[in-house]
Amino acid sequence: MNKKENFENIRKFNVVGTRPIRPDGIEKVTGKALYGADLYAPNMLVGKILRISEPHARIISIDTSKAEKLPGVKAIVTFQDFIDIQGNQNNDTLENCIANERILYDGHAVAAVAAVDLKVASEALDLIEIEIEKLPFVIDVDEAMKTGAPVVNSGRKHENVPKNFSDNVTSFCSFGHGDLEVGFKEADEIIQKSFKTPSVHQGYIEPHACLASMTSDGKADLWCCTQGQYNVRTICAQILGIEVSKLRVTASEIGGGFGGKTTVFIEPLALVLSLKSGKPVKLIMTREEVFKATGPTVSSSVDIKMGMSKDGFIRAAHAVIRYEGGAFPNATYELGAQSAFAAYNLKNVKSEGYNVLTNRPAQAAYRAPGAPQAIFAVESVVDELCQKLKLDPLEVRLNNAAKKGTLASYGPTFDEIGLIDTLEAAKNHPHYKAPLGPNQGRGLSCGFWFNFGGNTCVSLNINFDGTVGIVEGNPDIGGSRAAISQMAAEELDVPLEKIRTVIADTNSLGHNDVTDGSRVTFAVGLATIKAAKAAKKEMCKRVANLWGLEEDAVIWRNGHVYPAGPNAGDQDPLSLEEIAAISSQTGGPIAGHHEVNAEGAGVSFGVHLVDVEVDPETGHTKVLRYTVFQDAGKAVHPSYVEGQMQGGSVQGIGWALNEEYIYNSDGKLQNPGFLDYRIPVASDLPMIEPVILEIPNPGHPYGVRGVGETSIVPPLAAICNAVSRATEIRFTELPLSPPRVLSAILNNR
How remote is the C-alpha of 352 from its chain's centroid? Predict the structure, then answer.
């Protein structure tokens, strides 16, 4: 019996796997949910930030005296205000929030104002006088690597960086095994190509916003839209040089994040403005500020060399990955190098990664950070090899697919994974066999993400009336409150409507890592199950004492405590509700608590199929059909899982076809808003069909594995492969916008 069959025979679910109404639905559709900009405090001030539209400049002087005299202005801060109070860590984060000696990118903040209203704050910004000296800049990742390129931020280079690069190359990594030279000799076809992807925005609806209140004794409260209130607390406390216990951070509802709200951009400024003014201060970013001064994903330049034999086996694979991290070091390059070849069982493989500084804001995470760019390049080459050798692209991927026992290209040996299952599902799906018309093409791509675990803390409380309250520390950005409630109901054997899950502030629970990497349903769900088990154990103990039995003489079944057997007595079972009602007489409140640094998240794989039609007269690409196959482990709430699969696919489609940060020759962003930065709308898309596969993750008691990251990885290559087959032109640079596609068509005639 295999592990999948064994798991299914052991565990049958009643609540997990169902589709209950989402617990936050009413608040969100009625407007009662409180987002960052909805927060209010009596006598609060309004903050505004002065940003400079230059990619690189030395700050000669900042004169705030005129602004300070404006009636209604209560506080002004510059970097100088942080010098005496800042801690010794996160200096890069602080300098990304507000410039020190140099402006490092278009939109870099130099000062912030707190005033009685927005009008006065805006007038005050106009009165701040700043003198700067323009400096040479570099925007492109390849240009930034060259010796002689303008140095963005000196002193950041690690010792392991190879020689002959500029000081903008800060970090280097390498993974792999086998012998590339031997592998390439075994290949019948070798392709070597370079690929480029632009920076793209996460596309969240809600701009960054926060409300800060800080007093002279160092105690502070901060309310903000964030993916991790504990991370915000840690960063801000380090920047301000205060103990974390003095700063309480409360997460609001969040209108999208996708990795873009895992760090801070305005929160330290709001806190110091509040400290200086003695009043609460609210800061809200404009959409233009969001585009210019928060982190999009890294742009990339990737070289791929792969060799395949006539029988469809990949004999050797080599990737060189260059990611620009903005003006400060970034770790995404390492994730890209690790994920590049993760889908394949390879004997000879090597991937190298470089982080490169450019005059852009510090780049942030975006759903599976680093994986889409690298895998776009790899999957494009795999598809072209299949074409040249006249091989079926799905069969080739099946031949080379990673499976249980595969030594991954980045080091570990895979446990139970679902790549072959997703490929088989795609092979057997009607979509793969459907006929295509003129100017149409079909694209295929695999996708991969590591999935995270991490530090997690949960409290579960049994109320006197038999209802259950759960307190967890991660903002709900993808349905985690529903999933956690479902797992608690499953473990306690009680109706779901008796469970309510809420998000704690940072003073209410131990540390919880940020909501990212598809970790929450796995890690918080794991802690919730353990907390429920602890509560059940306590209830069993109480009932055993009540019945005069040993603890092992009672058992928990179907939401009741029963005698373990005929020899234990014939007492009537007691329900959770009955046990809760007498808890005052049996020892007091009943609760379960669990904290863990969760491991065993289990990697995630997916396969995407897409059909497109390319207009040869305009270069416009229409997406005709899109099907997603993904291993979800156990789908706790299938509707949310489907939503994650569809949402990631849409974002990947936008990345492939339209989205890009456009900088002009002056190093300034030209499209800082959704009018000129085009994300997909409903009319651009077909109904995306999700196909959930459930290969249980052995690292979770319910088989859960993360699903939110993987779905954004395959679309880039799947779309590009489809367009390449429709036009018979191989594309290596995204986005495949109508002008780029049309130009290639005209040049190929």
Answer: 23
What is the CB neighbour count within 10 angstroms for residue 62?
18
Residue 24 exposure: Cα atoms within 13 Å on the Cβ side: 22
Q: Is pLDDT of 6 > 90?
A: no
Q: Is 300 helix (H, G, I), strand (E, B) or coil?
A: strand
Q: Is residue 14 part of a domain?
A: yes
In a domain, 66, yes or no: no
Binned at pLDDT 50, 70 and 90, residue 426 comes out as very high
224 CB-near residues (< 8 Å, 6+ apart): 36, 208, 209, 210, 211, 232, 249, 250, 251, 252, 267
Does residue 499 form part of some domain? yes
**Domain, as residue range, for 545:** 3-33+453-598
For 493-539, what is each residue's pLDDT tens digit? 999 999 999 999 999 999 999 999 999 999 999 999 999 999 999 99
Neighbouring CB atoms inside 10 A of 10's CB total 9
Q: How many domains does the chain have?
A: 1
Asked if pLDDT for residue 2 goes beyond 90, the answer is no
Look at residue 695 and tell me whether its pLDDT is greater than 70: yes
pLDDT of 8 reads 47
CATH of the domain at 522: 3.30.365.10
Residue 527 lies in a domain: yes
Cβ–Cβ under 8 Å, residues 517 and 46: no
Please tell me whether residue 242 adopts helix, strand or coil conformation.
Answer: coil
